Amino acid sequence: MNIVVVGLQWGDEGKGKVIDYLAKDADIIVRFQGGNNAGHTVVLDGKKFVFHIVPSGVLRENKICVIGNGVVVDPRVLIEEIRYLRDNGIKVSPQNLKLSLLSHVIMPYHRVMDSFRESKRLHKIGTTNRGIGPCYVDKFSRCGIRVVDLFNREKFAFKLKDNLREKNPLFKEVYGRSYFSFSKIFREYLDYAKFLKPYCCDVVDFLYSKRHSRFLFEGAQGTFLDIDFGTYPFVTSSNTISPNAFLGGGASFIRVDKIIGVAKAYTTRVGEGPFPTEFNDSLGDYFRQTGKEFGATTNRPRRCGWLDLVILKRAVILNNVSEIALTKIDILDGLKEIKVCVDYKFPKGNKYAFVDLEGIKPLYQRIRGWLTDTSMVRDYSQLPELAKDYISFIEKELGRKISLISVGERREAIVRKE
Question: Does this model's pTM top 0.85?
Answer without folding.
Answer: yes
